[in-house]
Amino acid sequence: MYSRGVRKLNVMANNFKTIKYGRQYNLALWVYAAMFYFFLYGPLLMLVFLSFNKSEIVGFPFEGFSIKWYHVVFESPELIRALANSIGVGVLSAVIATTLALSLSMAFRHDFWGKSLVLYLILVPIIIPGIIGGIVLLIFFGFSEIRPSLWTTVLVAHVNWVLPFAFLTLYPRLHGFDRALEEAAMDLGAKPWVIFSRIVFPLIRPGIIATALFSFSLSFDEFVRTIFVTGFQRTIPVQFWGLIVDELAPQLPAMAVIIILISILTSLIGFIYMRRKVN
Amino acid sequence: MSSRDVSVEVQGVSKSFGSVIALNSVSLDIFKGEFFSLLGPSGCGKTTLLRMIGGFEVPDDGSILIEGSDTSGLPPYERSTNMIFQHLALFPHMNVWDNVAFGLKMKGIEAGIIGDKVTKALQLVRLEDYGSRKIDQLSGGQRQRVAMSRALINDPTVLLLDEPLGALDLQLRLSMQDELRRLHKSLSNTFIFVTHDQGEAMAMSDRIAVMDQGEILQVGTPEEIYDKPKTRFVANFVGHTNVFDGEVSNVGNDGDFEINCSGLVFMGVGEMKVVKGQRVSVALRYEAINLSKPDNEVKGASCLGVVREKMYLGGMFRFETVTKEGLTLTADIQQEEQSKLIKEGDKIQLFWEPESLAVLLE
Questions:
Q1: Chain B positions with Cβ closer than 8 Å to A
Q2: Number of residue pairs across A and B with CB atoms under 8 Å?
Q3: What band does B362 get if pLDDT is binned at 50, 70 and 90?
Q4: Contact B103/A278, CB-based, under 8 Å?
Q5: What CATH number belongs to A68-275?
Q6: Which of B41, B87, B180, B256 is at a distance of 20 to 30 A from A209, taking alpha carbons?
Q7: What is the pLDDT of residues B287-302, one digit of tens each?
Q8: What are the sequence ranges of the domains in chain A?
Q9: Which helix (H) or strand (E) holds B338?
């Protein structure tokens, strides 16, 4: 009985291995995959391509290879200032959001009254559509008579936007943290602050770095909320928007490539840290 | 016994988690230098009690004294106890040396002394060459020994062990039991060991407290717990036992008595204070019962029965028998020669020493 059953199972397994899909099915699969990647990466590649176009007008035909638009970008003081503004606000909001996310995550390991309510409150900025978020902030700052500027309104808007993502990135790290390690440290004479600095922090450091990098990248790309609360100091996306609206500037593709590179690089490093095991 | 110094004194401690009662007014004295086990099934409160002694749980009621002083309100880092955790909780980002040295560093001891002490502590568990190893480069047994040396380096008055051997395979488990016993003999610290494994508790402990549903049912040496269980739970939890409900049918002048269990009369001797008509239970260990041919002359108490099932358990046979009164009595017999002659369906005589009978009051 037993051996017959095993034989039957083997036959079934062999049949499964030798199943051949029809040629048409295979073709359809290829077409699907090709389209998928074309629409995903095609526009990006075209942008990179156009950024090296000598032509004074954004678009085809391709009139020859040139890096002059990159020169234009780097020689434009407004663009450099906007880039500096974006990096500054990005770094600061990353630091603030990560710190807040860390303390929230620490608190969320305990049970307390109204915990799920607090969770929803933290996540609200994700759910609210960007344009509504922007208007809400505009009204709020208007009523509070806070003048729009980079380090007040824009920074607050960014932290507000970035925090839920930072929390969602960092919390699993702390939630999965083995509490027995903290108890062991406490048992061996470590007081709470020492437990955090010698045990908890070193072990979740990769998660903290990843969170900060994602936060930066989110802030760096933020546009919809920012445009409502911007004063005279513009961030890169706002500056960019201005260029598109005022003039279809030929240096736009080059600028876009630079922004994409910065975003991709920070996210990539973030992902590397996310995956990193402690050691 | 009572003249010995008490190391840990548990006084009427209660603890609930929500509606679940983890400990129900538990009192207990644990002596200095003793290897004491808290034995019971999962959820019986043994781990809660251990964690309370370590300062990780706060009693709702009652208090715990260590070396005579009340520990109420003391956090773990201000107690003279150290714990070996269930999954060891070694610090994964530190090497062996730093793990072991952690306790001393926290006490602010100067570097030179730490060096000497760590070396000694690693020697104690034979890991002196492993100081620079990462935790994930160690075998299961080596991790156990690192955890032991890390917990012992501060020379705790009480070492708390929370089922640290639970996750090990049998071989390693036995060798770690040896290691722990060896450590306990060479040191003067009190060991409190939590386990659900009665064999482990028997093998290691000076005394055992058997716990169930937040209460301590019996405290005693392994022999006392095994030979004279006081309750049905203890009898069933520790070793293999036949347990029957019955009634005291006769009490003699010399303190001997008889207990009638569904027609089968057990003789009891001495010590127990029982009165005629009292409802009690009796417990008889599997290995306390012997078998012979029905017409042989036997010593002690005996009854007649039929073998219903015979099993070989390696080194011994287990016979499930039905007495002529209809009770099922199981006997473990080690003598192979004699056992081979008895087959399923045979009529046999069961006999045992009256002293091996335990009378259970609840």
A1: 54, 56, 75-77, 81-83, 85-87, 89-93, 102-103, 106-107, 134, 136, 150-151, 154
A2: 62
A3: low
A4: no
A5: 1.10.3720.10
A6: B87
A7: 999 988 888 888 888 8
A8: 1-51, 68-275
A9: helix B336-341
